[in-house]
Amino acid sequence: MIDLYYWTTPNGHKITLFLEETGLAYTLHPINIGKGEQFAADFLKIAPNNRIPAIVDHQPMDGQPPLSLFESGAILLYLAEKTGRFIAHDLRGRQETLQWLFWQMGGLGPMAGQNHHFNRFAPEKIPYAIKRYVDETARLYGVLNKRLMDRPFVAGNEYSIADMAIYPWIVSHTWQGQNLDDFPALKEWFERIQARPATQRAYALVEQVNPPQP
Predict the structure, then answer these.
(1) In this structure, are residues 93 and 39 in contact, taking their beta carbons and an 8 Å threshold?
(2) What is the rounded CA–CA span in Å between residue 20 and residue 115?
(3) What three-state secondary structure class fits 150?
(4) Angle, to 10 degrees, between the axis of helix 109-116 and the axis of helix 127-147?
C-alpha cells in the first residue's frame, strides 16, 4: 500500500498517472496547497521542501520499514523500479527515458510554472516576464515536437515515466499561451495519452479532490 500526498497540480498528476496505469494500491491524502497544508509539521516530516507530491511506501523493495519520498521525478523513478514497468531495462533505452524525465524536471516544469505564475497569478502584469516565459515555453514545445516526429512516445515506442512527467504540463497549454496546432507531432502524442483509460481515471480525481469552482 502506498500513501500518496497529493494536490491537483501537474506534479501531483504525474504520480496518479503512474498508479492508475499499474493498479498499485494507494490511499490518497489531499494536501490543499491553497490553504497552506503543505506546511503542516506531519507533512514536512515526509516532504521537507513543503511541496507535493510525496509518498510513503509501506512495502518498499528492500523489505524494510516504510519508505517516504518527495520530488515527483524521484517518485516516478522509484515506482518504475519497484514495478519494473514504464522504464526500459536495457542501458540505452533506460537513458533515453531518464534524460527526458530530467528534461521535464529541469526545463519544462520550471519554465511552464513561471509562465503560469506571471500569466495568471502575479499581482502585477510584467510584460517582459510574460514574454520571456511564453517564448521559452514555446521553444521547449518545439524541442518536444521535433522529438515526437518519428516516434509515438518521448523515449521511443513505449509509454514511459518520461511521458507521465511531461504530459501534465502540456494539459495547461492554453494557460501557457501555446496552441497545440502549432506543434502537430506533440498534439498527436497529447491526444494519444489523453485517450488512455488510466489518464482519464487520474484526472477524474480532480472532481473528487478539488472540483472547479463555478
Answers:
(1) no
(2) 29
(3) helix
(4) 140
Please check whether residue 106 is in contact with residue 136, taking contact to mean a CB–CB distance below 8 angstroms: no
Give CA–CA dist 201/17, Å, rounded: 8
Domain boundaries, the chain: 2-86+199-209, 91-196
Cβ-based neighbours of 200, under 8 Å, separated by 6 or more = 194
Tell whether omega for the bond before 110 is within 30 degrees of 0, i.e. cis.
Answer: no
Beta-sheet pairing, 54-57 with 67-70: antiparallel
Closest of 148, 114, 143 to residue 131, by C-alpha: 114
Domain 2-86+199-209 falls under CATH 3.30.420.130: no
Phi/psi region, residue 84 (left: phi>0; alpha: psi -120 to 50; beta: rest), is: left
Q: Which residue has the cell 489531499?
A: 30
**Is the domain 91-196 a CATH 1.20.1050.10 member?**
yes
Asked if 178 and 119 count as a contact pair (C-beta separation under 8 A), the reply is no
Question: How confident is the prediction along the chain (214 residues), in pLDDT tens digits per residue?
Answer: 999 999 999 999 999 999 999 999 999 999 999 999 999 999 999 999 999 999 999 999 999 999 999 999 999 999 999 999 999 999 999 999 999 999 999 999 999 999 999 998 999 999 999 999 999 999 999 999 999 999 999 999 999 999 999 999 999 999 999 999 999 999 999 999 999 999 999 999 999 888 876 6
